[in-house]
Each structure stands twice: as C-alpha cells, then as structure tokens.
Specification:
Elements: H1 2-29, E1 31-33, H2 36-63, H3 68-91, E2 96-98, H4 104-118, H5 126-148, E3 156-159, E4 164-167
Antiparallel strand pairs: 1-2, 3-4
Length: 168
C-alpha cells in the first residue's frame, strides 16, 4: 500500500544518508549514532512539517507583528517536542558508540567500496574492485590498530578536586 511504500522509501533514504555520513561522524566526533536511521523515520517528517510552516508563520508575523506571539507559539511547542524526542533518544542505552577516528586510508577505502557497490549493476568487473577496497579497508583498520596499540602498562591518576580516579 502507499504508506508502506513511503515508509520503505523513507527508511532507505535515511539509511543511505546514515551510511554516507557515518565515517565523517566517526572522524569528526569519535562517535557513531546507533539509532540514526530509525529515529529519522519519526523526526524527519515532523521537521518537514515544522520548518515550512514555521517559515510561513515567520513571514506572517513580520507582516502583522502584533500577532507574532499567537502565530509563533505553536511552533515553540512543536520545536520543544522535537528537542525532547531527540534528547530522550540520546539517553537510551547504546545510543552512541565511541570509536577511534578512522584514518584517511580507511575513509578513502570505505567511500571507494560504497562507490563500487552503488555502480555494480553498471560494471562488468565490480568484484575485483570491491575486493581491492575491502582489502585496503582491512589494511587501514589493521594498521591503525597496530599503530595505536601499546605494549606498555599505562596508569593515569586524575585529581578532579572532589575525588580521585586511577585509570589503568
């Protein structure tokens, strides 16, 4: 039916955006949001109603400034609701995974592999290319692991004023 098709298309779209930005999020913020695609199914349509309606309300409030509080008040409620949903989802267990920033080799390999997979139906010999990108990606992961793995015991004492912590 129509709503199932729209839901599937929405999930596919948000998953593609998630997969496309995932390495950049890991590189820039050292975290990976785990509920991104699923939460966007709820949040994007809500924001899709709020933003255009808010623009119309903003234009109307500039024309009739006396009515601005009555025109913009519903959007404050909707935006507060949107923020509350996002904040709640961020507090769920496992909402974010903390990761090391991927190396440049890992980023290039990831996007190379995605490019090969997206154009696989138009290429005759996509499997060797996919194998090359997977090999480079695994090499990048292994190289980063080997470069950051310490063979020495490290102990850090943290004095934060109200208490102490020892990180081994």
């Amino acid at each position: 039916s129509g709503w199932q098709r729209r839901l599937g298309l929405g999930l596919l779209t948000t998953s593609a955006a998630y997969a496309g930005t995932l390495p950049l999020l890991a590189k820039g913020f050292h975290t990976i949001p785990t509920y991104g695609s699923l939460s966007n199914i709820l949040l994007v349509p809500l924001a899709g109603v709020i933003v255009p309606s808010g623009v119309v309300a903003l234009v109307l409030s500039t024309v009739w400034s006396a009515f601005a509080p009555w025109i913009l008040a519903p959007f404050a409620i909707l935006l507060s609701g949107l923020v509350a949903i996002v904040q709640y989802l961020a507090t769920l267990p496992g909402a974010q995974l903390h990761v090391a920033a991927p190396s440049t080799l890992m980023l290039v390999s990831y996007y190379g592999l995605v490019g090969v997979l997206l154009t696989a139906s138009r290429q005759r010999s996509w499997i060797p290319w996919a194998g090359l990108w997977v090999t480079l990606l695994i090499a990048g992961i292994g190289w980063q692991y080997a470069a950051t793995r310490s063979t020495h015991l490290r102990i850090t004492f943290l004095d934060v004023g109200t208490g102490d912590a020892i990180l081994v």
